[in-house]
Amino acid sequence: MLTLPASLTVYVATQPVDFRKGAEGLALLAKETLGHDPMKGVAVVFRAKRADRVKIVVWDGSGLVMYWKRLDGSGFKWPPIVAGVMRMNAAQLSALLAGMDWTRMHAPRIPQPKALA
């Protein structure tokens, strides 16, 4: 299981990529094509043509890390395949990686203080 800090900025490449690429190749793709550099503290999520595979590249402070996962018997719930990237929060990414419907995850609401009468 991957534990991500809630403050981590996460970008999802919505189009499938060549999954033969390693961490350096995906980081370069993220920087040059998508405009988001994993070396600058963001996580970039990539999908394969088959919806059951994901790779994530992120800088952990001391080196580039690549996380790879394949779901058995099902696929991840991916956003629609369009050009570009989309942003999600750490809770949504955790739900995606668990094979859940990440679109149902929302940031917790902060209760508004009651007005004084």
**In sequence order, what are the helices and strands, one letter per element?**
EHEEEEH
Individual helix count: 2
Q: What is the overall silhouette? A: globular
The spatial strand order of the largest sheet comes to 4-3-2-1-5
Low-confidence stretches: none
What integer is the average pLDDT? 86
Largest sheet: 5 strands, mixed
Taken as a percent bin, the fraction of beta residues is: 15-25%
Q: Roughly how many Å apart are the termini?
A: 48 Å
- Percentage of residues in helical conformation: 10-25%
Can you describe this structure?
Strands 4-3-2-1-5 form a 5-stranded mixed beta sheet. α1 (23-34) links the parallel β1 and β2. The chain contains 2 helices and 5 strands, in the order βαββββα. The mean pLDDT is 86. It has helices spanning 23-34, 90-97; strands at residues 9-13, 42-47, 53-59, 64-70, 85-88. By secondary structure, the chain is an alpha+beta fold. The radius of gyration is 16 Å and the shape is globular.
Blueprint of the fold:
Elements: E1 9-13, H1 23-34, E2 42-47, E3 53-59, E4 64-70, E5 85-88, H2 90-97
Parallel strand pairs: 1-2
Antiparallel strand pairs: 1-5, 2-3, 3-4
